[in-house]
Design brief:
With 338 residues, this protein is mainly α. Among the domains are: 1-32 and 66-97, no CATH class; 101-117 and 125-223, no CATH class; 279-330. It has helices at 11-17, 22-39, 68-79, 91-98, 149-152, 163-168, 176-184, 193-205, 207-210, 214-221, 240-245, 256-259, 262-270, 279-291, 299-314, 316-319, 322-329; strands at residues 103-104, 110-111, 114-115, 119-120, 130-132, 172-174. The chain has a two-stranded antiparallel sheet. A hairpin with a 3-residue loop joins strand 3 and strand 4. The longest helix is centred in the first third of the chain and has 18 residues, at 22-39. The protein is rod-shaped, with a radius of gyration of 31 Å. It starts with 10 loop residues before the first helix and ends in a 9-residue tail after the last helix. GO terms for molecular function: Hsp70 protein binding.
């Protein structure tokens, strides 16, 4: 659209040509951009399309003609008044603002804060956008973490002058624990070995703070970072009875570099490492002893079975369950001399 140059108009007419109220001016610009979508046929898209190329008969707004600085200037000028204070935005104005493909991510792309065909993003959507909260880093060096593409495409680039706008548009803050839980840990398998080591080192060093974040703890439970196994699938080597019964199955325990580290064992215990003997673990132990039975009964095997049954008697209240008793009755684990 043509630009109105006020110098061509008499001074007494200029006030009538320019919107004097900052809020009204912002709303008028946002409405004008969005009115284009329904004023032409087919609908006038707000984005540039693939490669910024206009489709035949379907012109597009050329956002790519603006430099990164001009794009940020546009967002700031549209959201701030003449006195540099934020313009008060109505909910409908915020929706229009979010639909502008002008927000820069860490990947360098410019995006709209909406999901195609789904409307305005809401908290909890997998494709929500975030801004890093360095004040909630949980001790992590956020700049040193290996960010996968899924993270750089969903994290907005830090723009100090646009922070108020981000807040008004509902862009959620994401601290160190959230960054790990939502992006890094789910992408663990795609990281290089060096990146995996750096990530795990950051976790164990900062665990005292990180373990308070339930989302992070739950995410780490699901990651097979122990040579392909999750913590919940392995036994605690500090448990003497488990260590004895599974002595010939080293893969039933964490790898040596984790098993030999008190700090890592504390982390693993918090994310599911099987530290005690519950009903399920007891049955696994009993079935393992049954599978190793031979005639004559090896002394070591008889000793292990005796210790396991003694554990049952000592903690009988923990195992009092008819269903458990029926399963155990089918396992030949009582050592006898025939």
């Amino acid at each position: 659209c043509p630009v109105v140059e006020l110098a061509y108009f008499p001074g007494d007419q200029r006030a009538a040509l320019v919107e004097q109220d900052d809020q009204a001016a912002t709303r008028a610009i946002l409405s004008s951009l969005h009115d284009l979508r329904s004023a032409t046929g087919p609908s006038y898209p707000l984005d540039e399309g693939v490669g910024g190329v206009e489709e035949a008969g379907n012109p597009r707004l050329r956002w790519g003609s603006l430099s990164p600085t001009q794009m940020d200037d546009f967002l700031q000028d549209l959201s701030h008044g003449a006195n540099s204070s934020m313009v008060s935005l109505a909910p409908s104005d915020r929706d229009k603002f979010r639909a502008l493909p002008a927000f820069e991510t860490l990947s360098g792309s410019r995006v709209a804060l909406v999901a195609p065909g789904r409307g305005i993003l809401s908290r909890g959507n997998d494709d929500q956008f975030y801004r890093l909260d360095r004040d909630s880093s949980a001790g992590l060096d956020l700049e040193a973490l290996p960010l996968p593409p899924a993270a750089t495409e969903r994290l907005l680039a830090p723009k100090p002058r646009l922070q108020d706008l981000y807040q008004d548009l509902g862009v959620a803050r994401l601290g160190g624990a959230g960054l790990l839980a939502r992006f890094l840990l789910p992408s663990f398998g795609a990281l290089t070995e060096q990146e995996k080591e750096a990530l795990l080192a950051a976790v164990v060093v900062n665990w005292e703070a990180l373990k308070e974040e339930r989302e992070l703890v739950d995410a780490l439970r699901e990651v097979p970072f122990l040579d392909g196994a999750r913590a919940g699938a392995l036994y605690d080597p500090r448990n003497e009875l488990l260590r004895d019964i599974f002595a010939d199955a080293p893969r039933a325990f964490p790898p040596a570099r984790f098993a030999g580290s008190p700090a890592w064992l504390a982390v693993l215990a918090d994310v599911g490492l099987r530290t005690g003997i519950d009903k399920e673990t007891f049955l696994e132990c009993a079935r393992r002893l049954e599978a190793k039975a031979a005639e004559p009964l090896p002394f070591g095997l008889a000793s292990q079975a005796t210790r396991l049954l003694r554990h049952l008697l000592t903690h009988f209240q923990d195992f009092y369950d008819p269903a458990f008793a029926r399963e155990l009755a089918e396992v030949a684990v009582v050592p006898v001399e025939l």
